[in-house]
Design goal:
The protein is mainly alpha-helical and 276 residues long. The chain contains ten helices and two strands, in the order αααααββααααα. Helix 2 crosses helix 7. The radius of gyration is 23 Å and the shape is globular. This is Energy-coupling factor transport system permease protein.
Length: 276
């Protein structure tokens, strides 16, 4: 489990007992709410709420550390690129200019630009933890049935289910190959240089991708032989009907979404402006 990236873990907590459809709707609606607003109060509250949900679900740091680190690096790179292409965008949005650091030419840092970049980065930590939480607390088959419940074709839903089932297997195979390579003297740990690690991991990942494609073809052929997709509808073994708890979860998501829309009118736009 420690090595799994997005694998389902079985438990009997409150979040695990919810229907996959309600968790999917919560993830989608809250993500839309966070993406459509730049109100720091709302997205910061959602980010803190996400952390509490991860703790409530019993998800350990080892299981999500790679995802968090990857998203952090991506967020930092995104912030740097946004600043390089529009160093005064925050100043234009908030209609104020408070210089924190003098620079060269157009490259100076204002509190408005820093505030905008902070909000931009915070959006990642509103949506990504929810996605991880959903994938790690929802059985792949239940995920497929939840997609079918909200109107997605069962063929597409089943393809997604197979993908989620296969991810842990690919990860496990990757770690096994890497440990075998390290046992043969190929250093892939933190002791090796960054470029050496990248090259070494690519030597494992590329053949693994091609072997995975071969397995996909095998699975597709087996499903065709069993006449998968012949009927317009199908039943689900792991289908779970909506309960009162599911209704409360969806209601909470709708409240968050409506709050983001309400803040649009209160702030007279997408941005919360503490300077006005």
């Amino acid at each position: 489990m420690a090595n799994q990236l997005l694998g389902y873990q079985e438990s009997d907590g409150f979040i695990y007992k919810l229907s996959g459809a309600s968790k999917l709707l919560f993830f989608v609606l809250v993500s839309v709410a966070c993406m459509t607003t730049y109100d720091t109060r709302l997205i910061l509250l959602v980010a803190i709420f996400d952390v509490l949900l991860l703790k409530l679900a019993g998800i350990r740091w080892k299981q999500i550390s790679f995802v968090v680190k990857f998203i952090t690096v991506f967020a930092v790179l995104n912030v740097i690129m946004v600043y390089l292409f529009a160093p005064s965008y925050g100043q234009e949005i908030y209609g104020a200019k408070t210089v924190l650091l003098e620079g060269w030419g157009p490259f100076y840092l204002t509190s408005q630009e820093l505030f905008y970049l902070f909000n931009l980065s915070l959006k990642y930590f509103c949506t990504v933890p929810l996605a991880v939480l959903f994938l790690m607390t929802t059985h792949p088959s239940q995920f497929a049935s939840s997609l079918n419940q909200i109107g997605v074709s069962y063929k597409v839903a089943y393809a997604v289910s197979l993908t989620l089932r296969y991810i842990p297997d690919v990860q496990e195979e990757f770690y096994m190959i890497r440990m075998s390579q390290e046992a043969r003297g190929l250093e892939l740990s933190k002791k090796a240089g960054l470029m050496d690690r990248i090259k070494g991991n690519l030597q494992i990942v590329i053949p693994l991708i091609f072997s995975s494609l071969g397995r996909i073809d095998t699975i597709s052929t087996a499903m065709e032989l069993r006449r998968f997709g012949k009927n317009k509808k199908r039943t689900w073994y792991t289908h779970k009907a909506f309960s009162s708890s599911d209704s409360l979860v969806v209601a909470l998501a709708i409240i968050i979404l409506l709050t983001s829309f309400g803040l649009f009118f209160i702030n007279k736009g997408r941005f919360y402006n503490p300077w006005h």
